[in-house]
Design brief:
Distance between the termini: 37 Å
Helix content: 40-55%
Strand content: 5-15%
Order of helices and strands: HEHHHHHEHEEEHEHEHEH
Structural class: alpha/beta
Amino acid sequence: MAALGWLTPRRRSATARSVLAGEASAEAARKSSQEAQEAPQAAEEEPGFPVIGDDKAAAFFDLDNTVMQGAALFHFGRGLYKRKFFETRDLARFAWQQAWFRLAGVEDPEHMQDARDSALSIVKGHRVAELASIGEEIYDEYMADRIWPGTRALAQAHLDAGQKVWLVTAAPVEIATVIARRLGLTGALGTVAESVDGVYTGKLVGEPLHGPAKAEAVRALAAAEGLDLSRCAAYSDSHNDIPMLSLVGHPYAINPDAKLRRHAREKDWRLRDYRTGRKAAKVGIPAAAGVGAVAGGTAAAIALSRRRR
């Protein structure tokens, strides 16, 4: 049963590595921030929020299953596989990880760590500029059509109010920055991979930007930007982001997992669910169809690979 240890979520508090990861991500995000480019979109929101012209307020959005359907790291992995960065057996592992993410509707830190370790080994020795350029192509191929329109509209409402909007994600900061720019957001906080002379070493700075590390990143960025967190908003689908959501005065549960939904109701947090074809309170049944599609695609890729050998 030890092999199934990653199935059980673990509670973690902020550590020195979380603080380091958060501060590194905040520094990287500030350097890569961009001005909003896209035309305004209407968002359904309570009257008076976000407050127009409040320069002490900002919004922080989780990425996976909040802004975008599925996991950004998986979609990035598909793009790298297409470009022959790794072999079919690695794609099968990525597909299984994505299938679990969609079926369970939750993030397990140990499981996600395995996915990121795989990604780090793949990019080791490649140039940062190369991955950033490829990220632009992968966004168009696999991510652009998976953005939740409802969440996108919420982000646009903050931009229209003159506020900055940041993605906060465990995905690599380079990929997160591409997504933020393409959505017209201010910038992104993401996991910072170590590089020397512009080449990835295969190590992280601190730890993945997950759970408590996200809260540390938001806190560090707010301090650097002169923000009042009690006037800020945060949006996420995962109970792992409760530390980040608890930092701000306006927390939102978006497409929430069961634990976050319960917590949000207890705390009287606002909820939004943009998923279709399933009851908001239950994740399993239609998600299985997605699992079948992923598994089927993986099997097809493997079969095609064997025919070519």
